[in-house]
Design brief:
Elements (H helix, E strand, L loop, with lengths): L1 E7 L3 H18 L3 E8 L5 H8 L5 E6 L5 H15 L7 E4 L11 H9 L4 E8 L5 H18 L12 E4 H7 L11 H13 L4 E9 L12 H10 L1 H9 L11 E3 L3
Parallel strand pairs: 1-2, 1-4, 2-3, 5-7, 7-8
Antiparallel strand pairs: 4-6, 5-6
Helix pairs in contact: 1-2, 3-6, 5-8, 5-9, 7-9
Length: 259
């Protein structure tokens, strides 16, 4: 079973088609899947769209009456996946966005890497040409900062939020009942990769094209604010990841970069 975890806030214009394309991706893979969607205090008609699609895709919706934020929503969905699975060494979870910045067509690549033995797959972005230069610059530097901060072998950019995990690795991360992720936004994505990697035997990377031209609204990301927040979160992320204790010290991990 693959659990697809999708935090969402006011994504009514895109989330329906994203869910449909995920369904098509799994039909081609022939793998069993379940969608876990977090509607994080949306004020548009996201809830109505999700009700419609709940009749045609296997999906559980976590509804927040007020906004909790990206990190809390993502962690809650991933915790659900761990709790639902009775075979965490076999089952996996994919974290992705609801606005088409993470292409559903790339899900197959992530799943195949899990099936080939990876425990964590960090999907690293190539920003589609034509997107504003400030955003491209901010994404590049966020990846650079967190790469130097975490020093994960083979991982150049852990900040995209598009990733796959063997559930056994997440079970190690979420042993405590209280919230684990201490950062937000791009830094939270890096923190999650870093924490899970402490419990992984093998870390892979995969490439994907990050798109921002397939949604009807402008990006909510303010590039300068996002890079400043990532900079300020460096120490928090480094300390959080260092607190993760692997179940067996001294075992070898290898990273393989995807093409």
């Amino acid at each position: 079973m693959i659990y697809v975890c999708i935090p969402s806030h006011n994504e009514a214009e895109t989330i329906g088609l994203v869910l449909w394309k995920i369904r098509k991706a799994f039909e081609e893979l022939g793998r069993e899947y379940h969608l876990l969607v977090g509607d994080d205090g949306s004020t548009d008609h996201t809830a109505e769209v999700l009700r419609i699609y709940s009749d045609v895709v296997p999906m559980t919706v976590e509804q927040h009456s007020s906004r909790k934020g990206y990190a809390r929503t993502a962690e809650s969905l991933l915790r659900q996946a761990v709790e639902l699975s009775d075979r965490p060494k076999r089952d996996g979870a994919i974290l992705m966005h609801a606005d088409f910045s993470h292409p559903p067509e790339s899900i197959g690549d992530l799943v195949r890497r899990l099936e080939s033995g990876a425990d964590v797959v960090a999907a690293e972005p190539e920003i589609a040409p034509g997107w504003e230069r400030r955003y491209r610059w901010a994404r590049k530097w966020a990846g650079f900062l967190m790469r130097r901060n975490l020093k994960l072998p083979g991982v150049n950019d852990p900040t995209s939020g598009f990733a796959a995990f063997r559930l056994a690795t997440l079970r190690g991360v979420f042993q405590r009942p209280t919230p684990v992720l201490e950062s937000e936004g791009w830094a939270a994505n890096a923190e999650l990769i870093g924490r899970a990697s402490a419990h992984a035997r093998r870390i892979d990377t995969a490439r994907f094209t990050e798109r921002h031209d397939l949604k009807s609204r402008a990006s909510r990301v303010a590039p300068w604010a996002a890079i400043h927040a990532t900079w300020k979160s460096r120490a928090v992320v480094r300390r959080a990841v260092a607190s993760e204790v692997p179940p067996a010290r001294g075992r070898r991990r290898r990273a393989k970069e995807g093409v």
